[in-house]
Amino acid sequence: MHKYDITVVGAGHAGVEASLASARMGKKTMLITMSIDQICATSCNPAIGGLAKGHIVREIDALGGEMAKCTDKTGIQFRVLNASKGAAVQGSRAQIDMDEYKNYMKNICLNTKNLSVYQDEVVDIVIENELVEKIKTKLGLDIYTKQLILTTGTFLNGEIHIGKNSFPAGRACEKPSNNLSDSLSKLGLSLRRFKTGTPARIIANSIKFDEIEQHGGDKKPSPLSFQTDKQNFNPTQNSCYITYTNKITHDIIKENIADAPMFSGQIQGIGPRYCPSIEDKVYRFYTRDRHQLFLEPQTKEANEYYINGLSTSLPTEIQDKVIKSIKGLENAVVSRYGYAIEYDFIDTKVLTTKLSHKTITNLYCAGQINGTTGYEEAGAQGLIAGINASLSCDKKPAFVLRRDEAYIGVLIDDLVTKGTNEPYRMFTSRAEYRLLLREETADIRLGKYGYEFGLINKTTHNKTKIKNETISLAVENMLSVWFNPSKDNLKLLEYVGEDKISDKTKLIDIVGRSTMTKEKLDIIVPKYRTLGDYIKNEIIIHAKYYRYIQKQQKQISKMKNMLNLKIPDGIDYNSLSGLSLEVVEKLNLHKPENLFQASQISGITPSAVDILLLNISKRIRDV
Ligand SMILES: Cc1cc2nc3c(=O)[nH]c(=O)nc-3n(C[C@H](O)[C@H](O)[C@H](O)COP(=O)(O)OP(=O)(O)OC[C@H]3O[C@@H](n4cnc5c(N)ncnc54)[C@H](O)[C@@H]3O)c2cc1C
């Protein structure tokens, strides 16, 4: 008899984080996937992180996930994006060796205590008394499980399109998962269709590198994991290259656009708006005479390059023409053609903030099956589903991150409250409290949870505690110390090239000036001289954001109060007078868990929220 506490279906970026978390939390875990050799395959570009995605990777790391550590070990180019902009919107990104990345994750999974990895296809989910009892596999196994986590990515009813050619597949040269899709439909889950796409890869020795622009990594690369030694981090820094489409490229695309499945009507699913295909870009932005392309190595040996920005599902012969029209790629030889893929995903409004189904409470979904796009978004959901499934086995309260605590909180709240009508990717603009959610504070914000769940070790926890205490003490100190316009102080300011002051000013407002540097800090506050550069920088940024963050606290405490007002199970919205029919319908459909979630549903008016508040408060008083 195959019996597990937790079974995870699919070993992509969500499945791996889910199963590692669950096994590390002591649960007997099964990770079942269609191909062990494809564990954590990077279906699209071999890169982890980026704007807002870097934040998620660091949050996964702070909670005890594996993505950042794997990236540090297998990265081949590290850069901080938006480095010239404010600290809150900078994003760490690393090009990775896609083979080493898979290998690292495969080895971790195969060597983790409590975790069994098994290659097979799950074809059916058997429900008994509104709970998952077992799953059935193609090879005829029945696997009994207390909790089930689905992380099937783009495989559910997957269909690849290249020109007029279309065929069932979960990813290039991999089978789709059709039976499971049917099984989910039978369970009453509402499935919808999305689309995504990928560009061609080309052989390195067919590229004229000397004719295009080289694009290197950072001079002083920063690791993504808080557990990687920053001082001794000295990874390979391979180059990427920049080239551009041109008028000839655009003419070829325009002439053949009718053969692109997106335009011929062959594809019905909605694609990622912020990651359009080249045919879409040429069509929509027809006044642009060129589009930037990045050539990114797929592995450390850099034998193959990914053409970032040239995602396409045009016929193969047109892809060849398009590529050869681009500077530096005149002789390019394609190793893998670009394609589009349509797949089923579930309407996430049926999920709770634990990522479990509202009715079938031991069924969890995470990753692209939830309508998101991106390895990072998938990994984050996997980790949260794994933690919650594990807590649920122990009958412990759910782990839910708030919007002011983490990008992961924003991601899950958006998904379960609003759902999504296009592949959901994270942006810094989605987070209303982004000043609180900088990458570098992820360990301070979330490390305590990782430690509590046993996913972060004591050494890391203590390191975070010391970092937090040092910065908090400095902030407290800067708030209590006044900087007077004395002769000496004015001289000091002049010496470091800072504007003078005419009134006494709190030290935090001097240190928080946009022109402050760690060199100036050494002179203005000599007692910080002995601190490391990293902590000095953090002190300056904390000072910079301090006043803005204070202003947001009022809003945050209002949100916290609303989150604490749980909406009772089985509430009869029809019986509450004053709610319009439309509002009742929406509340019945979304089944919000608390007043804050109710307030986030589109169409729920402030007066409807007031009515709910009155009624819930009354119920609490009456109990
Ligand atoms: C062509 C393409 C282009 C993409 N382009 C981009 C992009 O430009 N930007 C971006 O951010 N993201 C892109 N993505 C998305 C990115 O790859 C995914 O968001 C990410 O991989 C999702 O992770 P996941 O863990 O949810 O699923 P996946 O990584 O897809 O993993 C799913 C796993 O589930 C397994 N599985 C499925 N069904 C079963 C079953 N019935 N039984 C057992 N195992 C099963 C599969 O074998 C696979 O291992 C693209 C994906 C594809 C396919």
Residue ranges: pLDDT <50 for 5 or more in a row?
none
Structural class: alpha+beta
Query: Going by CATH, what is the homologous superfamily of the largest domain?
Result: FAD/NAD(P)-binding domain
CATH topology of the largest domain: FAD/NAD(P)-binding domain
Name the hetero compounds present: flavin-adenine dinucleotide
Radius of gyration computed on alpha carbons: 26 Å
Shape: globular
The CATH architecture assignment of the largest domain turns out to be: 3-Layer(bba) Sandwich
- Number of extended strands: 22
Share of β-strand residues: 15-25%
Fraction of residues in helices? 25-40%
Q: How can the largest sheet be summarized?
A: 7 strands, mixed
Tell me, what is the CATH class of the largest domain?
Answer: Alpha Beta
Q: What is the number of helices?
A: 20
How many structurally independent domains?
4
> How widely separated are the two ends?
46 Å
Average of pLDDT? 95
Please provide a written account of the structure.
This protein is α+β, with helices and mostly antiparallel strands. It folds into 4 domains: 2-42 and 107-196 and 343-439, FAD/NAD(P)-binding domain (3-Layer(bba) Sandwich); 201-340, Elongation Factor Tu (Ef-tu), domain 3 (Beta Barrel); 458-552, Arc Repressor Mutant, subunit A (Orthogonal Bundle), CATH 1.10.10; 565-622, GidA associated domain, C-terminal subdomain (DNA polymerase, domain 1, Orthogonal Bundle). It has 20 helices and 22 strands. The strands form 5 sheets. Strands 1, 2, 6, 7, 8, 9 and 20 form a 7-stranded mixed sheet that branches. It has a 6-stranded antiparallel sheet with strand order 14-15-16-17-13-18, with no helix packed on it. It has a 4-stranded antiparallel sheet with strand order 11-10-19-12. Strand 1, helix 1 (13-24) and strand 2 (29-33) form a beta-alpha-beta unit. Helix 2 (53-63) runs parallel beside helix 12 and helix 12 (442-452) packs across helix 13. The longest helix has 32 residues, at 533-564. The two termini are 46 Å apart. 47% of the residues are buried. Flavin-adenine dinucleotide is lined by residues 9-15, 32-35, 38, 43-44, 121-122, 151-155, 170-171, 177, 180, 196-198, 275, 341, 367-368, 373-375, 378.
